[in-house]
Amino acid sequence: MMSISELDKCIIRALQEDLPLSPEPFKKLAEDLGIEEEMLLKKVQFFLDSGMMRRFGATLRHQKVGFKANAMVVWKIPPSRSKEVGHHMAQFAEVSHCYERPTYPDWPYNLFTMIHATSKEECHTIAKKIALTVGFFDYDLLFSSHELKKVSMRYFCE
Amino acid sequence: MDKIDGQLLTLIQRDFPVTSRPYAFLGDQLGLSEADVITRISNLKNQGFIRRVGGVFDSRKLGYTSTLCALKVPENRIHQVKQIINEIPGVTHNYLRNHEYNMWFTLIAPSNEVIVDTLTSLKLKTNLDQLMNLPATQFFKINVHFKLQEGS
């Protein structure tokens, strides 16, 4: 892992706040940080290019914008096939996240896909479509009934 | 939310311009003035469509470790346990889901030791033992980008 300077940490702290809605928002951030705007813009681009920042932009409340149902679909896939199947599942546009995770004696599911759709029925239809495509049918859909917490991570604040 | 708001939201999720006058730049793309773009984004925030505009960082590339955890919580203790979990600063998402493992939360911390310590102390504080730590071992896709239908 690349080392992260104290200045970079300050910039990251600033970029995880909400961007000001003034005409020159980065200039405002740069002034608060005591650096030139040009340097800040270069740093933002560097964070993007290096992958330290996955994206810069708006985070939406997806229920509000019409994606009312989200399902965590969990799959029991033979470990020898999980990599291939995981890559295959990731191709579906409806799948926003796809991970392999450990199993437990009372938890046999090793692949996790997040599906966003407009209804629960549509989530079921999408899961079925994925199952038919990959040829594995041992899966379950876990719907969220209540959102108890959802915040953006604040790095370098501990 | 009208058609232009939909286009604006689709655009600023991924292609927010990292330039000196980003709102003017967006205005040029959408045929709006800089002031119009600012007003529209402000309204979309006030109406709750936009949570935040800013950087979304890769926890691993910043040296952090993340995990997904699932806990079996008795129905009558959900409120109490929720409060204990939500107080942990690195817990960014927490949902109730329709399963015996009913409370699912994500935890981000500076190291795996901190994660293990946090979960151990959580078990003690809640007196609940059926807690699964499910750190991802392979990442196939991490991509939250919602393409909004026009006029939706």
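The radius of gyration of chain B is 20 Å.
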